Amino acid sequence: MKDGFITVAAATPEVVVADCVANTHNIIERVRALEAQHAKLMVFPELCITGYTCSDLFWQDKLLDAAQDALITIARETAAVDALIVVGLPLRAKGKLMNVAAALNRGRVLGFVPKQNLPAYNEFYEARHFCAGSACDGTVAIDGVDVPVGANLLFTCSTMPNFVVALELCEDLWVPCPPSINHALAGATVIANLSASDEMIGKNSYRKALVSGQSGRLVCAYLYATAGLGESTTDLVFGGQNMIAENGTVLAQSELFANEAALTQIDVDRLAAERRRMSTYPAADSTGYVVIPFDVAREETTLTRDIVADPFVPQDPELLAHRCEEILTIQAQGLRKRLEHTQAKTAVVGISGGLDSTLALLVMARSFDLLGKDTRDIIAVTMPGFGTTDRTYTNACSMVCKVGATLKEVSIASAVEQHFSDIGHDISNHDVTYENAQARERTQILMDIANQTNGLVVGTGDLSELALGWATYNGDHMSMYGVNSSVPKTLVRHLVRHVADTCGNEALSKVLIDVLETPVSPELLPPEDGVISQKTEDLVGPYELHDFFLYHMLRLMYAPSKIYRLACRAFDGRYDAATILKWLKTFYRRFFTQQFKRSCLPDGPKVGSVAVSPRGDLRMPSDAQARIWLDDLAQISLTK
Fold first, then answer.
1. Strands of the 243-246 sheet, one edge to the other
2. What is the mean pLDDT of the chain?
3. Side by side, which strands form the sheet with 41-43?
4. CB of 130 within 8 A of CB of 98?
5. Which of 20, 35, 46, 585 is catalytic?
6. Cβ–Cβ under 8 Å, residues 265 and 301
7. pLDDT tens digits, residue range 581-638?
8. Could you tell me if 88 and 100 are in contact, meaning their C-beta atoms sit under 8 angstroms apart?
């Protein structure tokens, strides 16, 4: 349970209708299997002790007595199991019969949560047998112990404060105002739903949408365990579609008609942090709730959930294509408005033949199409300098022609040499002055050409460069509108690839593909034998790592040691632990020391959930120290 991760399971045992002895055996057997997988929360379906389809047999005391005996047996037999176990059964209380979820922990029955919404329409007639539960129904004696019964019970873990569980049953999720809303507002980070939802055409997709939507709306983990094979098929068939969702994403789902368990890890610390971040999420108020503690041992959770190495990039190709179109449209519409508002006649961009300036040019062409303007009013300036290679120069010139923009070439060599002479800098000294003087000369040229043509300078720097401060202050750091400012480098590649695949221009596509295959470089140092000698990722680290770090730091607010742990899993086989740790330290050092550059960023459109604009997502002091973050990493031992 280190770092907030908890292994949880939603499981469907084999059910024998009205045979509580057989069902008890099957439930305990499944508990043992899940215990071997270190599950700390195990959720079973609605009425699983008797079977959901007992119908009028629910009126038989013999069945009800057997169900209660079975519950006691399950509690005793699982007393040594280190988990919160939730099962469903019919329960007599206050002279009525309730459909309840029972929470068990270390041999004790902690509480009963009754179903609040009983369906009595279509194929359902639960109101024939059961009484709806209310907020507090008192207690029921079970094996000589008074056990609380009520809809408003919160089960809180004594060893992990953010692990707070509340329960609802099947139809409770399908109503306009599910009980889980109040449970989450009372502080529950995990909602477990015990269900018996029959199969119909298309129903599995709707259930999945309900579960994922509720977990996202409530910023919670949602476990859905439903009845499956073994239930009576007199009129209905049950498929056992078990699901586990976290904050809008389904993390695990079992196959239909397989009686499998869905098992994964949820991150309750992430959920708690996300709620703190959201100013519109109310403070937890458990007034009116009965808070019941339970115990599970605190241990390091083995991660089996998928940790995506490229969190900014959708894994599904169809979704990725759709996302690329969305982003390009947002970028183009942002620039369109700025050009329209400023009444700029031209848009000016420095074109290097690299990824970022390529994307900016493609966005500018889209903006001009939206405005109905001639793309010849896009002035793309190539400014060869000391590090420019034939490959990037040729690609830059070629793509400008292919999009119909105006190409302008201004060499910076003589101007920079004069500048070095003026300030007394030795041109053979390839230090930061040598590099930054070139970047600032290029920015000056762009600004002056924009003045000449009544234009607007479009910036090309991306989110990853801004996070690392990999930009020359008042050089490529500056523009009049930065279209790439919230696009991470890993996503820039996919956007350019998307245009290459969909532009319908074979010649342009060929150039774009070669740009994608060119090493990322500022080209500020002289090439070696005509080949790029200065590769950015050799200097600051792989962008795929830095984008991973950035996402988990800013979007999920994870601690450095937690990010390191996840990165080691996500990049297993690609980077060793020492390499990941090295570049993670570099990330934190640069992120903190370079904030002053982000504090005065030009305007630019936000396209995703992570951005660093000082007017938007990131308000950070430029003088903040990274010590406590780096100290966290200093505790990591690579010998483990």
1. 249-253, 243-246, 221-226, 190-195, 164-169, 153-157, 290-294
2. 94
3. 108-114, 96-105, 84-93, 41-43, 5-11, 261-267
4. yes
5. 46
6. yes
7. 999 999 999 999 999 999 999 999 999 999 999 998 999 999 999 999 999 999 998 8
8. yes
pLDDT above 70: residue 534: no
Q: Is 535 a catalytic residue?
A: no
The yes-or-no answer on residue 115 being catalytic is yes
Q: Which amino acid is at 515?
A: V
Catalytic residue among 170, 246, 324, 585: 170
The catalytic residue among 40, 48, 54, 115 is 115
d(CA 488, CA 490): 6
Nearest to 267 by CA among 11, 8, 81, 31: 8
Ordered domains of the chain (ranges, CATH): 2-294 (3.60.110.10), 317-634 (3.40.50.620)
Q: Are 104 and 87 in contact (CB under 8 A)?
A: yes
User: What are φ and ψ of residue 319, in 5° steps?
Assistant: -65, -40
Query: 427-463 pLDDT, tens per residue?
Result: 999 999 999 999 999 999 999 999 999 999 999 999 9
Return the pLDDT at 389. Answer: 87
Q: Known catalytic residue: 489?
A: no
When computed from its CA atoms, the radius of gyration of the chain, rounded to whole angstroms, is 30
| Residue-by-residue DSSP string for 142-164 | ETTEEEEB-S-EEEEESS-TT-E
Q: Let me know: does 56 contact 103? Beta carbons within 8 Å.
A: no
**Contact between residue 148 and residue 290 where contact means Cβ atoms under 8 Å apart:** yes
In the DSSP assignment, the letter for residue 315 is: S
Quick one: CA dihedral 212, 217, 220, 225, positive or negative? negative
